[in-house]
Write a structure and sequence with these properties.
Layout (H helix, E strand, L loop, with lengths): L7 E5 L11 E3 L12 E6 L2 E7 L14 H10 L4 E3 L2 E5 L9 E2 L3 E5 L26 H11 L4 E2 L3 E5 L7 H9 L4 E3 L2 H10 L3 E3 L2 E6 L14 H25 L20
Parallel strand pairs: 1-4, 1-5, 5-12, 6-13, 7-9, 8-10, 10-11
Antiparallel strand pairs: 2-3, 3-4, 6-11, 7-13
Helix pairs in contact: 1-4, 2-5
Amino acid sequence: MVREAVRLGVIGGSGLYALGESGEEVWPNTPYGRPSDPIRLTQVGGQAVAFLPRHGRDHTIPPHEINFRANLFALSSLGVKRVIGPCAVGSLRPELEPGSVVICDQFVDRTRGRRDTFFDGPKVAHLSAADPYCSELRPLAAGAARQAGFPVADAGTMVVVQGPRFSTRAESQWFQRMGADVVGMTQYPEVVLARELGMCYVTLAVVTDFDAGLEGRPDVAAVTHEEVVAVFARSRDRLVQALEVLIAAVPERRGCDCQATAPSVGPEE
């Protein structure tokens, strides 16, 4: 039996390890190894969705060990053309309080050593990454988050750190001064790998804490993983609601230029 292609993928971050109705689980083989977990083919918001927990369903994979290339290639092999990648982030702005959502439009990469391209040679390609997040999906994501009851920032820059440790106070202050709004560990290289494959990408970045060293907030305590998980858990139901609304609102045909700005050659099969 030939499986119908699934056009929409969701990569769940910390605290989001399942989504939608129960469905078939597949574990595609890729040239880059295995993805983080079996991909569940399910129904969400009236649409077929491929769901993959970024860290594995038991959160056994730290951010610097995620096989991002396998994850994105596996989703693409199932027919996915659009990816929603919610994640947990720390706030670098006093006005972005825990429990709010940022629909990022930019990132700054501060990771190191991650396999961040499908073009290692002999094929060579250069992604146009000036605007890495999908212009069509971002306003839809903002509207869905508001409908679910989140305070929403329609745009923002995420600085992506290597992890698994959190920032020092000095690093946090540096990130603020260079203009970043939130800090996370997994958006890079996930978003650029999706774009290399011609897929649209959008994130709902759920603020779980004020990052240590937040200027103007000397009372902010050091971030802990337990705090992040607890705040995300309190936001989970609203996040699922937002995802359901967003998925239902995604148009059948793409009206963006994400595919057009992808490299004209594909990675090796």
